[in-house]
Design brief:
- This protein is an alpha/beta fold.
- The chain contains 15 helices and 14 strands.
- Strand 13, helix 14 and strand 14 form a beta-alpha-beta unit.
- Helix 11 packs parallel to helix 13.
- The chain is globular, with a radius of gyration of 21 Å.
- Bound molecules: FE3-S4 cluster (F3S).
- The site of FE3-S4 cluster has 16 residues, from helix 14.
């Protein structure tokens, strides 16, 4: 793999042992995947931030590192809202370990914003090279924005953040971004909301695995695309998709679609994912809510009070710029929490059945929280939480 003179110095240990080890890790990854060089990145998003997922060994490894991030780098959601963990029912022992993880990342110069929606906080543009970890963020960056990132593991993303570069392979290269399969939606989707797009993603991910789908017959907005991509990345391993005449690369490129397999999806295949089981709590914001989603939730909750716990998950930076809307939501008794989510927080494990409006959460809640999951529209979620 080609290294420039600066990279050679890092590899020789002239810039410290941590950077040397991090570059060795990136080179090893690059060799496995056939990268010819490293590429400079605009930002990193690092998973492995919840103590629930990394445990004591992960914390010990992080604490042993000594370097500073070379590019803006944020974290994936952690196990609790940093400022309000008591309100979420987090055990003090867990909170102490989680705070130690956060302190370790802070020492490395990582920005303490813990979110799967970094694109709401840091400008990310078409063609940018990134090293992001969280699968829904990766899908959004590649598909909706037209940026370029592989789905990095936590250590690979952290190494990229510290070195400021990542191996140039996979989705960083044009030749690997062409569609593999056409998905035709045999329904009028004009009235579909976020949950229905999440359900479509849940179903499609199972059908396509890690192929790049090219959708025909849908015209989702950005929040709906966020839900679609998040769910496909959860039930499949879809890191990039295109939508005819909607996503930037589908608009810009004349992809050669001839000869591709065509999968047709009927409305009944999506309908069957919706059930009416009784639930103990409702959780929305997977991926973390956009400002528009917060406004919608506040509108639906106006004049109502929750009778079941209703959790809304969002980035702290989005709370800060939408504080009036957040206050409106919390007047109902709902909780708007930053930094964490229904999947990575141990607090959600106390509810046997959880309602969500997300295809990704529908896929992950059973395994990660040991709960039954039900999907419904945001209107249904609010109705169940306030009935
Ligand atoms: Fe984000 Fe947690 Fe969902 S990390 S995509 S809210 S599972």
């Amino acid at each position: 793999m080609y290294l420039d003179p600066d990279e050679e110095k890092i590899l020789a240990g002239e810039k410290g042992e941590t950077l040397q080890k991090m570059l060795e890790l990136l080179i090893a990854l690059g060799k496995v995947f056939g990268a010819e060089r490293l590429v400079r990145i605009r930002s990193a998003q690092v998973s492995g931030a919840s103590y629930k997922t990394i445990g004591e060994y992960g914390l010990a490894w992080l604490s042993s590192l000594d370097a500073r991030a070379a590019v803006p780098a944020v974290l994936n959601p952690i196990g609790m809202p940093r400022g309000r963990w008591q309100e979420m029912g987090i055990e003090p022992a867990f909170a102490a370990q989680q705070q130690a993880v956060i302190a370790a990342y802070e020492r490395l110069g990582v920005i303490l914003e813990c979110t799967c929606t970094p694109y709401y906080l840091h400008e990310t543009s078409f063609g940018d090279h990134l090293a992001w970890s969280e699968s829904s963020a990766v899908s959004y960056a590649n598909s909706v924005i037209g940026a370029r990132t592989n789905r990095e593991g936590g250590p690979g993303a952290l190494a990229a953040a510290l070195v400021g570069k990542t191996p140039c392979y996979g989705l960083h290269l044009d030749k690997n971004r062409n569609p593999h399969v056409i998905i035709e939606i045999m329904a009028d989707e004009k009235d579909w909301g976020i949950a229905r797009y999440g359900a479509l993603g849940y179903h499609t991910g199972k059908l396509v695995g890690n192929k790049i789908p090219y959708f025909r017959g849908i015209a989702p907005d950005r929040d709906q695309m966020k839900a679609l991509g998040a769910a496909m990345a959860a039930t499949g391993a879809v890191a990039l998709y295109h939508i005819d005449d909607i996503t930037p690369e589908a608009k810009k490129n004349q992809f050669n679609l001839s000869g591709l397999e065509v999968i047709r999806i009927e409305p009944a295949e999506i309908d069957q994912l919706f059930s009416d089981i009784l639930v103990d709590a409702v959780a929305v914001g997977c991926p973390h809510c956009s400002p528009a989603e917060l406004i919608d939730i506040a509108r639906l909750l106006k004049g109502k009070f929750v009778t079941k716990p209703l959790f809304v998950f969002v980035a702290q930076g989005v709370i800060d710029t939408n504080i009036n809307t957040v206050n409106e939501i919390e007047k109902s008794g709902a909780k708007v929490f930053a930094d964490t989510c229904m999947v990575v927080s141990p607090a959600m494990e106390r509810y046997p059945a959880i309602m969500v409006n997300s295809g990704k959460a529908l896929a992950y809640v059973p395994d990660m929280c040991g709960a039954v999951a039900r999907i419904g529209s945001i209107e249904e979620c609010v109705a169940v939480a306030t009935s």
